[in-house]
Amino acid sequence: MAQNSARLLALKLSMGILVAAWISFWILKPTKTWKKAWHSAEDLANDTFLRDSGLNVVVFCFPVVGFAILSFIYLHSSEKEKIRNKTSLTTHFRVTFSKPVILKSPIGVISLGELSGAMLFVAFLFWTYYSNVSSDFKKLAPYPPLKLSRQQLKVMHMGVRVGSLSEFCLAVLLFPILRGMSLLRVFGIEFEAAVRYHTWIANALVLFCTLHGTIIMSIWGQKKRLLAEITSWPKIGRVNVAGAISLISILIIWISSLPVIRRKYFRTFYITHHLYIVFISFFLLHAGDKHFYLVLSGVLLFALDKILRLIQSRRETCIVSAHVLPCRAVELILPKDPGMKYSPMSTIFLKIPSISRFEWHPFSITSSCYKNEEHLSVLIKSQGQWTSELYSKISSIKDEEFGQLKSLSTVGVDGPYGPEHLLHQRYYNLVLIAGGSGITPFMSILNETSSKDSTTNWHPTNIVLIYCVKQVQDISMLTPILPILCQPTAEITNFRLKIFVTQEQGSTMTAFEVLNKPPRVIKMLPSTTKRSVGITQEGLIWRAIIVALAFVIFLISMVLLSDIFVHQVHGKPSRKSNPSWINDLLLFAAFVIAMSCSAVASITFAQRKLRNDRRAMEIPKKVIEEPMGTTDKKSGFLFEPEIYLGKRPNLSDVLSDLTNKIRDESIGVFVCGPDSMKVSVASFCKNHTKISCKNGLSRSVHFHSVNFSL
C-alpha cells in the first residue's frame, strides 16, 4: 500500500511538472527573450538528427502527450487503492472550487473554479496579444505589394495577432472532448461539463477567427485587392485562400451548433460538425507547419481517441429488454461483462443502426456495476428527434409480434466514461435534487449505495431525494429505483423521497397509482452471438502504450521525411528553397503514418483479445432469459414517498429537518436539472452556507451541480 502511494505521488509530481512546462512555454512564447533563444535553439537542432521540426514536436507536443501517458498509468495504479480518502487535500480543493459564485448568467451557474479558469484564460490571451502587438509596432516594416500607410500597417498587424489568439484556443479546444483519453478522468470532470468548456473555447475561437479575417480583408478591400489577395497561393508564406476556406468551415460549424438549430435539427449539427477536418487541414495550409506544431498535441490525441473509440464501437451488442414507462420514457437493458466496472454518474454512448447508422447519443447509466453484474441500464426520455423515434419504435411493438423488430435490438456502444473523483462520497448526508430527466445520474448513486458488493467503504447516513416534475405521469421516471423503496437493505437506513408535481393539482392517490403502475416489459429476443458491453475494452496501460507509440512514430517519421525531402543548403535544411506546402505535406504524411500504425496495433490487439477471451464470442443465455425485472410492490414501500401536488420544495425546511438528525457532519447538496433549478438551489446554498439546529449548533452546506446525459 505504501509503495503504491509513493508511486502515485511520483506520478502526480511528474504530471504537474509537464503541465507547468507546457503552460510556461505558452507564457514565454510572445517575449523577445524567448524568440531570440528559440531561433538559436532551432539553429542548434538543425545540426542534429532532430532538426527544427523535431524540436517543435518535442517542446510543444511532448508535455501534453507525456501527461496523457502518465495519466493512464496513474489511473491504473489508483485502481488498486480501493478506499477513497474523502478528507484528502485534492478533494478539499475540488469542493472549494465547486462553490457557485455567479448565479444568473447567459451560460448558467458558474463555480469558483470555472470563474478562476476563465479569468486566467482571458489574462493569458490579453498578455499574448499585448506582447505581440507592442513588439510589432516597434519594428513596423513596409509591405510593398499593398503600399500601406503606417496606420494601415498597425491595423494589419493587430489583425494578424488576433489570429494568433485562435492558435491557443485551437490548442486547448479538443482537450475537453477526449472521452477515451485520461485527461477528463484525472481532473474529475464530467462529460457534460467538459462539453460546456469545449463550447466556451469554441466560441472564443470563432470570435478570433472572424475578427482576424474581417480586419485583414477590410485592409485588402481598402486597397481594392480583396479578390487578388484572397485567392493567392504564394510559394512561400501564408496561403490566404486556405484561410478563407478554414474560416467558412468554422462559421458553418458554429451556426449549426447554436442551441436553436442543434436541438431541432441534431442530424444537421452532427453532420456539419465533421467539417472540423476541413477546418484543421486548411488551418495547417494557411498558418504553416511551425504554427501547427503549437496545436498538434490536441489534434494527435483527438485522432487517437477517435481511432480507439471507432475500433471499440464496431463491436455491436444488443438490447436484452425494454421497459416502456407512461411518461414517454423507455429503459433499455443491455448485457454487460461481469468484469467491467464503472463509477456512478458514468455516461455511455449509444448508436442504434435501425434509427441512424452514424448518430451517437450520450446517456447516463442508471444501474450499478456491483448490484447488476450482468446487465447495464439507461433511461431515455422522449425529448428530441432521435429519442422520440426510439420511443415510437419500441412502444409500437405489439406483445404478440415483438420478435418482428429484431433489428432494433442491435446497438453500438461506446464507453462507459465516468469521473475518477466522486464528490458525493465525501458526505455522509446527501440531499439530491433532480428535475425531470435529471434524475438519471442519481439513480446510479442510489443503486450503488444499496449494493452489498460495492468495494467502497462509504455508506451514507442520510439521503434525501427531492424530485420535481411538471405532470403526475412524469413520476413514473422513478420506476427503476423502486426496488430501493420496497426492499430493505442494510446499506440504506435513512432514506426519504419527496416528490413535487409543480403544474398539476389533485389527489395524491392518483400520483401513487402512477408510481405503482408497472412498466410494459418487452423482450427484444436478441442474438446470442452479440457481445456484452465491456468485452475487449482496451486497458489503461494499453492505451498509454498506444499514445506513446503514436508520438514516437510521428516524431521519427517527421524527422526522416524532412531529412529526405527538404533541400539541404550547406548541410542544413533550408525552408526558403522549398515551397511552404511541402513542409505542410510532410507533417500531414507523418501524421497519417503515425495514426495508421496506431490503428493497426489497436486492431491487432483487439482481435487477439477476442480469440483469447471465449466469453466475448456470445452472451450467456441466462442473461437474455433472466433480464432485469421490476419489483413486486405487494409488500408496500419500506420508505414511503412524500408526494406534493401543486407545490415547490422548500429547501430551508428540508435542510433544517436534516440537520436536527445529524451530529457534526456537513451536508452535500447535489442538483441536476434545468438551469433555472440550478440557479435557485445555488442561490440558496450561497446564502445559507450554515444551517442552524435546534441545539444551537450549525452544519455546513456544500453545493454541487451535476450534469446529465439524456
Tally the helices: 25
Bulk shape = globular
Stretches with pLDDT under 50, minimum 5 residues: 82-89, 629-635
Sequence of strands across the biggest β-sheet: 16-12-11-10-17-19-18
Distance between the termini: 39 Å
Binned, the helix content reads 40-55%
Q: Please report which band the strand proportion falls in: under 5%, 5-15%, 15-25%, 25-35%, 35-45% or over 45%.
A: 5-15%
Main β-sheet: number of strands, strand sense, barrel status?
7 strands, mixed
| Cα Rg | 28 Å
Q: Name the average pLDDT.
A: 79
Overall SS class: alpha/beta
Number of strands: 19
Structural summary, described in words:
With 710 residues, the protein is an alpha/beta fold. It is 50% helix and 13% strand. The chain has 25 helices and 19 strands. The strands form five sheets. It has a seven-stranded mixed beta sheet, sandwiched between helices. A four-stranded antiparallel beta sheet has the order 3-9-6-7. Strands 8-5-4-13 form a four-stranded antiparallel beta sheet, covered by helices on one side. Helix 7 (150-173) packs parallel to helix 16 and helix 9 crosses helix 11. The chain is globular, with a radius of gyration of 28 Å. The two termini are 39 Å apart. This is Ferric reduction oxidase 8. InterPro entries: FAD-bd_8, FAD-bd_FR_type, Fe3_Rdtase_TM_dom, Fe_red_NAD-bd_6, FNR_nucleotide-bd, RBOH/FRE, Riboflavin_synthase-like_b-brl. Pfam families: FAD_binding_8, Ferric_reduct, NAD_binding_6. The chain crosses the membrane at residues 9-28, 54-75, 107-130, 158-178, 199-221, 241-261, 268-285, 291-308, 540-565, 585-606. Residues 303-423 form the FAD-binding FR-type domain.
